[in-house]
Specification:
Order of helices and strands: HHHHHHHH
CATH superfamily of the largest domain: Tetracycline Repressor, domain 2
Distance between the termini: 73 Å
CATH topology of the largest domain: Tetracycline Repressor, domain 2
Strand content: under 5%
CATH architecture of the largest domain: Orthogonal Bundle
CATH class of the largest domain: Mainly Alpha
Number of domains: 2
Largest sheet: none
Helix content: 55-70%
Number of helices: 8
Structural class: mainly alpha
Low-confidence stretches: none
Length: about 200
């Protein structure tokens, strides 16, 4: 009886293997052969789904965005929703740290890689959209939403970068305090009449 192959599971396994290769060895080492070896699969099994390095890079980036969307969708609505969303955008654990490292590596590569650029824009927009949802959820006045969204997006990106650059044993409590302080500030954004 032929073995049934779960294509989604195999593609997830391959993508996670690509993440490990990217973080450990860098973009130049990302090849179908190397990723297949990392995933414990024969290279021929990847050639149809991921025929090129570019297709591997794109899929690796897309999966970061998909995982973020799944985690955010699982957050229950309520008073702590905005805070929970912001914490999902940060490398608070090993899994999210790996995702952020992939985002940095592939986001940097997208500057010179036209094939990856659209995927990078999609990822960037997904984070920006979440920041806007947070800003609206905490009740920022409509006239201030755009500016506060940009400020929050910059804060989250910078905070995430600091977190992956610090030692893995340095903890994340300080980052949670930054998020909490920023959320408190957002809740005090003046009403439209005071914005001029």
């Amino acid at each position: 009886m032929p073995r049934v192959i779960d294509t989604d599971e195999r593609n997830r396994r391959v993508t996670e293997a690509a993440w490990r290769v990217l973080v450990r060895d860098g973009i130049p080492a990302l090849s179908v052969r190397k990723v297949a070896a990392e995933a414990g699969l024969p290279p021929s099994s990847l050639r149809y789904t991921f025929p090129t390095q570019a297709s591997l890079r794109i899929r690796a980036y897309e999966m970061v965005v998909e995982r973020l969307a799944e985690r955010v969708a699982a957050i229950a609505p309520g008073a702590d929703w905005a805070r929970a969303v912001l914490l999902e955008l940060l490398p608070m654990d090993e899994s999210r740290r790996l995702e952020m490292e992939i985002t940095v590596v592939l986001g940097t590569a997208a500057m010179a890689d036209g094939a990856l650029r659209a995927t990078h824009r999609t990822a960037h927009q997904a984070v920006r959209d979440l920041c806007e949802r947070v800003v609206r959820a905490v009740g920022v006045a409509p006239a201030a939403v755009r500016g506060e969204t940009e400020r929050l997006h910059a804060m989250v990106d910078g905070l995430a970068l600091h977190m992956i650059r610090q030692g893995e044993d340095e903890g994340t409590d300080w980052a949670v305090k930054v998020v909490d302080t920023h959320l408190a500030d957002l809740k005090r954004v003046p009403p439209p009449s005071a914005l001029g």
